[in-house]
């Protein structure tokens, strides 16, 4: 099976913040891999822009260094790196001042797609949008790409949307959530809407519950200052886990087009019930005993009495015809036992067991693994082989992408590769619309306001565990349990 690579139109991509961490770790390696795959037309150009003084050759060396450090993840022909470097140039620009803007404007090609990646802090989004217009660089077909965090509450998200809307139409704004660019996440839509098998069962009548877990083994590390102002709710639930929830729970869109898909996702967010305090468990990791490399959360942040959560588990309810009565359990946290991202759709028991109680309880579970080892697994019940009567066991029908695609698995683009190429193609399906982001904050805000007003403190949990005890109880009291987070 050979993956098809369709070259995108010629483009000028300006990366504001082209010397920053995100550019080095994600954006530039992703562009390089697409270049290697032959997806960039010869006229494609990438222009780094930031305040640091550098010339084109300086930037090319900077990018070579970044690619060395963060890996290309792809075997390339000799000379490909030199070819990629020829697409690169650099302009010293101050987002808040006048420096560099005329030079940048003069550099832009006429008649090609223009994309501007705002890989800078959100406080600069307005300045950049305004100057792109002031210097005549943005035309009706230009696109801007903005990164998370998109606001820290509804008011700030609205203000950001308003600022961007002064200069760009919604159809020009690409709000990235890299979870949406993952191969498995898109496969989730293919599986749901491309097969007859699943959709008839995809509702409260047949689904007992759904679990979404995003577990990390790392702590907040050097990001303590940023993270402590955010916490797991703002950093993970409001965006990444909410997007996964939407794709699982949405109605089939009439067609696979950006607004049809995003309309359906928006309806899910609007149908979410408020969550009572007893359905939320927040936690903070403790130090790993005897390992000075793994201090506790409070040692990573400036405020020794911080009540910010590094873990959260919640039980959500969606009030609509499809999902009434099926709980969605979400959990995410740092310094947990393993690094796992997965969605598990747990189907109900058969209405009657013809095999009697000794056959035990068996359930079909569809697991969508985002990491590690992206793929899907469907647990089915079969007879245990051999003599001795009808004993049942659960076996997985496993579809690992790496195994299914063989050597072609290397060719599957990662999230940033796909999303940046979608920007150039002008396809917004995998990007969040402004109203979606606002609706997610409108649901999130009262929950955060609630625990802040009550002064709730997060429950400490052991480093390397599955999170606080109460998170386990959240499911136990419903007669269910979390899937194991494997080390
Ligand atoms: P960073 O390492 O601090 O980089 C910021 C970039 O902005 C640098 O290139 C900096 O270069 C440039 N910059 C700062 N002030 C500027 C100004 N006045 N004019 C022009 N350029 C300016 O930040 P980052 O980690 O790359 O993050 C960038 C954005 O992505 C942020 O919104 C962040 O929240 C988001 N994000 C980052 C990650 C990640 O993994 N790093 C993940 C998700 C989202 P100079 O100092 O040379 O100007």
UniProtKB/TrEMBL annotation:
Keyword Cell division: no
Sequence positions that bind substrate: 178, 182, 216, 235, 334
Catalytic machinery residues: 240
A GO MF label: NADP binding
EC number, as in UniProt: 1.1.1.49
Residues the entry annotates as binding NADP(+): 17-24, 51, 148
Known pathway: Carbohydrate degradation; pentose phosphate pathway; D-ribulose 5-phosphate from D-glucose 6-phosphate (oxidative stage): step 1/3
Source domain of life: Bacteria
Domain Glucose-6-phosphate dehydrogenase NAD-binding: 14-187
Gene Ontology CC entries for this record: cytosol
Domain Glucose-6-phosphate dehydrogenase C-terminal positions: 189-483
Biological process annotations from GO: glucose metabolic process; pentose-phosphate shunt, oxidative branch
InterPro entries referenced in this protein's UniProt entry, alphabetically: G6P_DH (IPR001282), G6P_DH_AS (IPR019796), G6P_DH_C (IPR022675), G6P_DH_NAD-bd (IPR022674), NAD(P)-bd_dom_sf (IPR036291)
Primary enzyme class: oxidoreductase
Keywords: Carbohydrate metabolism, Glucose metabolism, NADP, Oxidoreductase
Catalysed reaction, written as an equation: D-glucose 6-phosphate + NADP(+) = 6-phospho-D-glucono-1,5-lactone + NADPH + H(+)
Family stated for the protein in its record: Belongs to the glucose-6-phosphate dehydrogenase family.
Known function: Catalyzes the oxidation of glucose 6-phosphate to 6-phosphogluconolactone.
NCBIfam families in the cross-refs: zwf (TIGR00871)
Stored HAMAP family: G6PD
Protein name: Glucose-6-phosphate 1-dehydrogenase
Organism per entry: Litorivita pollutaquae
Gene: zwf
